[in-house]
Amino acid sequence: HGSVMGALAVSRALGDKSFKMPLNDARGDYVTASPYLHFENFSNTDFLICACDGFWDTFNYQDAVDLAQEKRKLGLSPELISKLLVSEALERGSMDNISLVVAWGLC
Predict the structure, then answer these.
(1) What GO molecular functions are on record for this protein (predicted)?
(2) 3-state helix/strand/coil string of the chain
(3) What is the tens place of the pLDDT at every residue in 33-47?
(4) 5 close to 19: Cβ distance less than 8 angstroms
(5) How far is residue 84's CA from residue 69's CA, in Å, rounded to a whole number?
(6) Banded model confidence at residue 105, pLDDT cuts 50, 70, 90
């Protein structure tokens, strides 16, 4: 969970002109909008948690997966699990805004 040059959250880095040429002293842009893509095959039991730093600052990946998996086994919907994860992040002290979605059935 780093930042760009210690000053800019990665989720906000794409359009920040001060981190791009010619406004920096580097030989190139510190950040770019060119995506890195990775394709993965999902099974029927897999799910996805997509969240911003306001969530990930209070959760490590495995804790989030474990909690979501536990709630899914109880029959909770992706929408309700998303709300529960946000609530838990707030209880853990997140002071940032939180955007989060849990999804499954991606096959």
Answers:
(1) protein serine/threonine phosphatase activity
(2) CCEECCCEEHHHCCCCHHHCCCCCCCCCCCCCCCCCCCCCCCCCCCEEEEECHHHHCCCCHHHHHHHHHHHHHCCCCHHHHHHHHHHHHHHCCCCCCCCEEEEECCC
(3) 666 778 888 888 899
(4) yes
(5) 12
(6) confident
Q: Are 103 and 42 contacting, i.e. CB atoms less than 8 angstroms apart?
A: no
What the block records as the tokens of 106 is 């991606």
Q: Which amino acid is at 107?
A: C
In this predicted model, what pLDDT tens digit does every residue of 46-70 receive, in sequence order? 999 999 889 999 999 999 999 999 9
Within 13 Å of residue 24, how many CA atoms lie on the same side as its CB? Answer: 14
**C-alpha–C-alpha distance, residues 90 and 1, integer Å:** 18
**Tokens encoding 56:** 């990930």
Query: What is residue 40's predicted lDDT score, i.e. its pLDDT?
Result: 83
